[in-house]
Write a structure and sequence with these properties.
Blueprint lengths: L2 H20 L4 H10 L4 H23 L7 H23 L3 H32 L8 H20 L4 H12 L4 H25 L5 H21 L5 H22 L1
């Protein structure tokens, strides 16, 4: 890893940490940076996941008091997250590099569209299922199955899973937006944690880059949390959307 590549990765990780703390979409920066600096696509995805995961764990700690103490909902969703994240990571590791690279622009497109329209999606779903009563066992079972699919996608690539989970949590009525963000953070940490362990055991992580990016992402996340109130969330979201569509076009052109 050259000095220039190290600087690019560190800065990209800082931006990713900042974006995740303010509006999400950090992987739109960390994953392409690894590709641009010569890391093959599957190790790049694994390394990006490892680099950003500590920030997800930190978010759970920040939201801990807001987590609902409802085992009948939390346990099935968490188990589905771990199983799905593990399966998604295993599928990724068994995907040929060339095949994954052909999928990358479409994965970026899906993630960017979810990021762009996800707020409307979650609000629309929440309005349709605005029922204060506790969800039935059938609703919880269905939600766990949907979460399994979301987690499988999260372990494979992961862009946009936060939006999908917020829409799902609107259906099972876990509480207000703060409680939903708390649950989303816990489930995201579970998904990425299962994927991280799988990638580490498989030897898919490029460690010099990963360790450098972990530091960068942590600094960016801390700065983002500190200055979040001074930033315009709408402007940040538009910036992430532009980057997402730009990466989609770039990787389509590179195919």
């Amino acid at each position: 890893m050259s000095l220039l590549n190290g600087i690019v990765l560190f800065v990209a990780a800082m931006i990713a940490g900042l974006m995740n703390s303010v509006a999400g979409g950090g992987s739109f920066f960390s994953f392409p940076a690894l590709i641009f600096t010569g890391v093959p696509p599957i190790p790049a995805n694994a390394t990006s996941t490892v680099a950003i995961w500590p920030g997800s764990v930190a978010a759970v700690g920040a939201y801990w008091s807001k987590l609902p103490r409802r085992a009948g909902i939390m346990v099935p969703l968490t188990v589905s997250s771990v199983v799905g994240g593990l399966l998604g990571a295993l599928i990724l590791l068994r995907t040929p590099q060339a095949t994954f690279m052909r999928l990358v622009p479409y994965l970026f497109l899906v993630a960017t569209l979810l990021f762009t329209f996800g707020k409307r999606l979650s609000q629309s779903v929440g309005a349709r299922f605005n029922n204060p009563s506790a969800p039935s066992w059938l609703t919880v079972t269905g939600a766990a199955l949907v979460q399994l699919v979301i987690a499988l996608y999260g372990g494979f690539f992961g862009g946009g899973i936060g939006i999908l989970m917020l829409a799902l949590l609107s259906m099972v009525q876990v509480g207000d937006i703060h409680s939903m963000n708390a649950v989303k953070s816990l489930l995201a940490a579970a998904i990425n944690g299962a994927a991280v362990i799988t990638f580490i055991v498989a030897g898919a992580v490029v460690w010099p880059q990963a360790l450098l990016m972990i530091v960068g992402a942590a600094l960016g996340g801390y700065g983002g949390a500190h200055f979040a109130q001074k930033l315009d969330p709408g402007l940040v979201r538009r910036f992430v959307i532009v980057v997402g569509f730009s990466m989609t076009i770039y990787f389509l052109w590179k195919r």
